[in-house]
């Protein structure tokens, strides 16, 4: 099937109105907005369109995950043509959420039961999960010009006066081959202007709590996105073991609920490592010569660490037992040498290490106060040294100024005066000795005061 025919079948699936809107956005947005990466157990690399045919021919001899952010029509045609994916998969990913509020349409309509895959394409399993990205723009204007959403596929967005912006998003997964998985995510939402951006939070309708599972973003990401979170997630080889583990039930692969719980716990663990690196840098390097920025950075790290511990506690409290049951069943199908991590164990380790890091951070604040005292003492000492230099300069300048003032002349006029030169010399010596006695007396009084303390 040619790319043109494939796109026509895709258009037929999404409808005329969605087609017109998609074509309009595809025209105005640059294709470079699409990002893609290829992940294996051994390496991670950027993915180009020209590599798809090679991957299809190789038939994915190694366990491989392809992640595409902000997919456009060109990528849809290329992926569908190379791997014979039914257009229905991309049609479902492009489907827009109806309604006026993403939160009500997605989280409000969700039941506590695990969401099953939307459809199955022949022997290839796929699923789609809708979520809500919370931006927290409550203090800013409700106009859309504060947001910059370069997603080619249109998504529902709404503004709440109390809680800020809520934007719908969709994550889709399809197993193209037994050892090849495709994951589609939406583009991140960034501020259109130079305005403060709170870290966005993604909530998905999986788990036990009413608000859904909260998937964090990476703390060191300049423009936080699910793409970067998945990038670090697949940096761990054991995640491939779980994703491609052989199954003997009707569900051929891992469920969305278990996948996103693993992603959330892995991202929180990565954020703790980021905080540990930042706090260690501040404690061992920056704190040696502290300034106002050092204090601000420490308070910022403390806020992030407190938020992390609170969110991890909440996630551990509402962790679904189905996640551990499914991972236990998966472990039985793998060799004993294959490691599998359980979210509850990972989260407990995060809490333990996070509490230790919090103690270290508070000790760093104490050390910061001590360092500031030492720096202030050094500054006071330096100020005293400079004052002493001024005093020495005054010792020379004051007598000379006094003598020239008494005789009403400048230094160059001394030789031309009717008075004897010795008169000026004697007066200068007497004044200099008197000034020296006064300075020495002052130093003696200061030393007595310091000894009495």
What does this protein structure show overall?
With 453 residues, the protein is α+β, with helices and mostly antiparallel strands. It has helices spanning 3-14, 16-28, 49-58, 73-83, 87-94, 102-106, 226-233, 237-243, 256-284, 292-317, 321-332, 343-406, 421-452; strands at residues 35-40, 44-46, 64-69, 119-121, 124-134, 147-149, 157-160, 164-177, 180-185, 189-191, 201-204, 213-215. It folds into 3 domains: 1-215, Beta Polymerase, domain 2 (2-Layer Sandwich), CATH 3.30.460; 220-389, Methane Monooxygenase Hydroxylase, Chain G, domain 1 (Up-down Bundle), CATH 1.20.58; 407-452. The strands form 2 sheets. Strands 1, 2, 3, 4, 5, 7, 8, 9, 11 and 12 form a 10-stranded mixed sheet that branches. A hairpin with a 2-residue loop joins strand 8 and strand 9 (180-185). Helix 9 runs parallel beside helix 12 (343-406). It is elongated, with a radius of gyration of 35 Å. Mean pLDDT is 80; it is low at 111-123.
Count all strands and give the number. 12
For the CA atoms, what is the radius of gyration? 35 Å
How would you characterize the largest beta sheet? 10 strands, mixed
The CATH homology group name of the largest domain: CorA soluble domain-like
Number of helices: 13
The CATH topology annotation of the largest domain reads as Beta Polymerase, domain 2
The helix content is: 40-55%
Order of helices and strands: HHEEHEHHHEEEEEEEEEHHHHHHH
Q: Return the structural class.
A: alpha+beta
Name the CATH architecture of the largest domain: 2-Layer Sandwich
Number of domains: 3
């Amino acid at each position: 099937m040619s790319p043109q025919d494939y796109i026509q079948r895709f258009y037929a699936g999404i409808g005329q109105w969605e087609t017109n809107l998609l074509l309009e956005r595809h025209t105005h947005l640059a294709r470079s907005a699409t990002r893609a990466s290829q992940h294996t157990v051994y390496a991670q690399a950027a993915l180009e369109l020209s590599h798809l045919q090679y991957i299809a021919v190789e038939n994915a001899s190694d366990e491989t995950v392809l992640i595409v952010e902000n997919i456009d029509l060109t990528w849809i045609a290329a992926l569908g043509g190379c791997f014979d994916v039914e257009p229905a998969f991309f049609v479902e990913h492009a489907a827009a959420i109806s309604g006026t509020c993403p939160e009500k349409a997605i989280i409000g309509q969700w039941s506590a039961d695990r969401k099953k895959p939307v459809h199955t394409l022949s022997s290839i399993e796929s699923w789609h999960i809708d979520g809500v990205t919370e931006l927290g723009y409550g203090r800013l204007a409700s106009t859309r010009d504060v947001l910059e959403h370069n997603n080619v596929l249109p998504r529902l967005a709404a503004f709440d006066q109390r809680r800020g912006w809520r934007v719908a998003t969709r994550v889709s997964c399809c197993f193209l081959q037994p050892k090849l998985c495709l994951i589609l995510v939406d583009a991140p939402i960034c501020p259109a202007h130079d305005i403060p951006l709170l870290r966005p939070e993604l909530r998905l309708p999986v788990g036990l709590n009413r608000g859904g599972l909260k998937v964090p973003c990476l703390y060191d990401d300049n423009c936080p996105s699910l793409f970067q979170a998945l990038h670090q997630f697949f940096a761990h080889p054991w995640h491939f073991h779980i994703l491609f583990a052989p199954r003997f039930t009707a569900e051929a692969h891992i469920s969305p609920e278990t996948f996103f719980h693993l992603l959330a716990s892995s991202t929180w663990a990565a954020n703790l490592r980021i905080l540990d690196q930042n706090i260690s840098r501040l404690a061992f390097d920056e704190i040696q010569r502290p300034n106002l920025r050092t204090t601000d950075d420490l308070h910022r790290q403390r806020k992030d660490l407190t938020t992390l511990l609170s969110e991890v506690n909440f996630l551990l409290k509402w962790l679904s037992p189905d996640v551990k049951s499914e991972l236990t069943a998966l472990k039985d199908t793998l060799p004993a040498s294959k490691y599998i991590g359980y979210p509850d164990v990972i989260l407990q380790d995060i809490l333990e290490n996070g509490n230790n890091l919090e103690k270290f951070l508070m000790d760093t604040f104490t050390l910061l106060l001590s360092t500031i005292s030492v720096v202030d003492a050094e500054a006071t000492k330096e100020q005293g040294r400079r004052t002493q230099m001024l005093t020495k300069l005054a010792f020379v300048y004051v007598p000379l100024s006094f003598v020239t003032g008494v005789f009403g002349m400048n230094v160059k006029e001394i030789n031309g005066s009717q008075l004897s030169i010795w008169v000026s010399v004697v007066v200068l010596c007497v004044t200099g000795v008197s000034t020296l006695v006064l300075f020495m007396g002052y130093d003696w009084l200061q030393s007595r005061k310091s000894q009495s303390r």
